[in-house]
Task: structure prediction
Amino acid sequence: MSYRAHPFHWVPGAGQRHASTDARPVGTLVYPAGTEVSTLCEESVQADSSEIAWLWPTCSACNRAAHKLAGLPPVGGAR
Ligand SMILES: [Zn+2]
Result:
């Protein structure tokens, strides 16, 4: 149950929801607030764990990279 098919996690930070392949601390489901996380869009953001942060828009660069990692067609490339 602790492993998921996709090797990345979503993390809210800097006003957008980014995806990251950074390992999360053992026993946590989200990155603790303030954790410095390297995102798939090659930024470094501080994780935000407030509830409103999950309502931020998804970073489109991370979304594209995440789809690629998951082996899915890029967003907008759907038939
Ligand atoms: Zn991003």
Notes: The mean pLDDT is 86. Residues 9-69 form one domain. The longest helix spans residues 60-69.
